[in-house]
């Protein structure tokens, strides 16, 4: 039952993943654009809501300001007209001139027009009641003035106090609608602010989640591509390249895998070619060296000085050529992973002296002095490969040493570890070459001009053999020339 539920959940997950991948954009740029749009849509909606709320508040604010201004304006006009009307009536009474009442009737028409404008505005019930009082007081005064005008009495008195009290009261209560509108606007602003705050609280985690999800979708194939490129650059060609993501990145992954396969084929062809060429060259070279030895020993007859010099040059160059061939064979073995260590107990000083003797011709040709400083040290190693390490370091020192110079070989033991320095006093290594000197086939900028060019494999092979033994080779600081330092475990079993 449990296994059935597990298979069902896996099936559902697989179907969901397929549906999700079907909805995802097929290109990398489309995926970035979709992620940007999805992450920005919630924020855009929040901004749109905020803009709409602000616009609504602004419109309402304009309406409130306009209404307030109109109510205040008409209120002041009512007070002004009422005062003028009272003044007109009093002046006519004092002067007993009925013709002056014409000004009263003109100002009353303006008063009534203003009263009608106020009645058309949205007012509070209290203000409507005040308007009704003003209207009633004005009507009473108007009837009184008309009766007095028709009776042609001498001095008369008309009471304007109810009208003046009502207009003043209306002027005082003119701010009531404004306060009401402002209160409504404040409520609306508080509501909009609350909604925006909750929108942000809800949308910010959503946007972060969307951004995080799309960053994973975008970063995962990029990490896979970076990992594949690093593996190919480091020479690890055994693992197939597979990129999960948009179709264009998948196609890029297929191209990388195709390049990996081609490099693997080329690497195999190169190793095969090196092996075949090296073996093919060794046979005629052996015959050349044997013939040179026979000539130098006088087996075929005596040689004059010029012929002896020619034979010496042949012997020197044949030794150098054989060393190049051996470097190629050793490098091919390292590349194919066929290095096998045959460890045995070895005395260090005799081994170093043997390497120096092997380089006798090269040392003699440049009139070099070898200063060998080595205590009695025994070590466990593959004698042949350790000899190749020292031989390559010494060959490099001979190559860069000036004629008549000195090469120092110093060995020391510390904490069951051998430290071997090979120092020459040549031009040294250029700063630009320091990080590349151990790369295969790399030739430094200060390589000496010679009719025999090196392969650029010596230091690379020496370092690889040192690493196989658990040691290391590094470029040590030296006042003049170059110092290569070999650190080597004397007894690997005890070190482990």
What does this protein look like?
With 496 residues, the chain is an alpha+beta fold. It folds into 3 domains: 23-236, Four Helix Bundle (Hemerythrin (Met), subunit A), CATH 1.20.120.1730; 262-338; 341-495, Histidine kinase-like ATPase, C-terminal domain (Heat Shock Protein 90). Helices cover 68% and strands 9% of the residues. It has 13 helices and 7 strands. It has helices at 2-23, 28-95, 101-119, 125-151, 161-172, 176-233, 247-296, 305-336, 348-358, 360-365, 383-400, 458-468, 492-495, and strands at residues 343-347, 369-373, 378-382, 406-414, 417-424, 472-476, 482-489. The chain has a 5-stranded mixed beta sheet, covered by helices on one side. The chain has a two-stranded antiparallel sheet with strand order 1-3. Strand 6 and strand 7 form a beta hairpin. The longest helix is centred in the first third of the chain and has 68 residues, at 28-95. It is rod-shaped, with a radius of gyration of 53 Å. The relative contact order is 0.06. Mean pLDDT is 75; it is low at 1-6.
Features:
alpha+beta, disordered N terminus, 5-stranded mixed sheet, 3 domains, 496 residues, Heat Shock Protein 90, Four Helix Bundle (Hemerythrin (Met), subunit A), 7 strands, rod-shaped, 68% helix
Tell me the radius of gyration.
53 Å
Q: Mean of residue pLDDT? A: 75
Approximately how much beta-strand content do the residues carry?
A: 5-15%
Largest sheet: 5 strands, mixed
What is the general shape?
Answer: rod-shaped
Q: How would you spell out the order of helices and strands? A: HHHHHHHHEHHEEHEEHEEH
CATH class of the largest domain: Mainly Alpha
Structural class: alpha+beta
Oligomer: single chain
What's the arrangement of strands in the largest beta sheet? 2-4-5-7-6
């Amino acid at each position: 039952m449990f296994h059935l539920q597990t298979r069902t959940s896996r099936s559902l997950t697989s179907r969901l993943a397929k549906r999700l991948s079907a909805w995802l954009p097929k290109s990398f740029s489309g995926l970035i654009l979709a992620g940007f749009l999805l992450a920005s849509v919630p924020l855009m909606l929040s901004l749109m809501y905020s803009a709409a709320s602000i616009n609504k508040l602004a419109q309402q604010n304009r309406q409130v300001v306009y209404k307030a201004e109109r109510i205040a304006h008409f209120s002041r006009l009512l007070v002004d007209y009422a005062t003028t009307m009272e003044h007109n009536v009093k002046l006519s009474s004092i002067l007993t001139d009925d013709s002056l009442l014409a000004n009263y009737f003109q100002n009353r028409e303006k008063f009534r027009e203003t009263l009608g404008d106020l009645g058309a505005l949205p007012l509070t019930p209290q203000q409507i009641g005040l308007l009704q009082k003003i209207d009633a007081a004005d009507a009473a005064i108007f009837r009184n003035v008309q009766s007095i005008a028709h009776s042609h009495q001498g001095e008369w008195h008309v009471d304007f106090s109810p009208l003046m009290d009502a207009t003043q009261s209306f002027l005082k209560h003119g701010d009531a609608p404004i306060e009401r509108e402002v209160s409504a606007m404040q409520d609306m602003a508080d509501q909009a602010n609350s909604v925006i705050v909750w929108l942000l609280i809800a949308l910010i985690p959503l946007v972060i989640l969307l951004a995080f999800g799309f960053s994973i979708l975008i970063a995962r194939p990029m990490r896979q591509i970076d990992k594949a490129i690093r593996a190919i650059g480091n020479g690890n060609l055994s693992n197939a390249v597979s990129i999960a993501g948009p179709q264009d990145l998948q196609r890029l992954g297929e191209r990388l895998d195709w390049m990996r396969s081609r490099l693997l084929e080329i690497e195999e062809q190169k190793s095969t070619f090196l092996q075949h060429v090296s073996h093919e060259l060794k046979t005629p070279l052996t015959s050349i060296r044997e013939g040179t030895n026979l000539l130098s020993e006088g087996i075929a007859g005596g040689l004059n000085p010029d012929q002896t010099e020619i034979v010496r040059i042949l012997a020197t160059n044949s030794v150098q050529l054989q060393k190049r061939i051996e470097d190629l064979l050793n490098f091919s073995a390292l590349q194919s992973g066929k290095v096998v260590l045959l460890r045995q107990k070895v005395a260090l000083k005799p081994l170093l002296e043997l390497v120096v003797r092997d380089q006798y011709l090269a040392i003699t040709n440049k009139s070099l002095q070898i200063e060998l400083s080595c205590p009695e040290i025994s070590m466990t190693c593959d004698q042949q490969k350790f000899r190749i390490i020292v031989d390559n370091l010494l060959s490099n020192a001979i190559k860069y040493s000036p004629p008549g110079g000195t090469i120092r070989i110093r060995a020391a033991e510390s904490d069951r570890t051998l430290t071997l320095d090979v120092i020459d006093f040549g031009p040294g290594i250029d700063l630009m070459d320091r990080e590349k000197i151990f790369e295969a086939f790399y030739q430094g900028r200060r390589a000496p001009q010679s009719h025999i060019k090196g392969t650029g494999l010596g230091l690379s092979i020496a370092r690889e053999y040192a690493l196989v033994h658990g040691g290391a080779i590094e470029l040590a600081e030296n006042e003049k020339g170059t110092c290569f330092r070999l650190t080597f475990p004397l007894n690997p079993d005890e070190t482990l």
